[in-house]
Amino acid sequence: MSELRQRRGERPEADGLALPPGDEFASRSKDEVAREAEEMMKKIREGPKPGLSHEAKRFKDELKEDPYNMELIFQLGLAYAKDQQWDKCANVMLRGLKRVNEFESEELRVHFLMTLCQASLSQGKFRQALMVFNEIAEPADANLARSYEALKCFVLCSNGDASAGLKAFHKAVEGEGFDLALGHWALCYPGLQKVGALEVTRGTLEAMATDESMKKRLEMVEMIRELKMNTLKERDQEANSKLIYHRCLRVVALLCVCVFCFLLYHVETSNLQRLKIKT
Question: In which residue ranges is the amino acid composition biased (Basic and acidic residues) (predicted)?
Answer without folding.
Answer: 1-14, 25-37
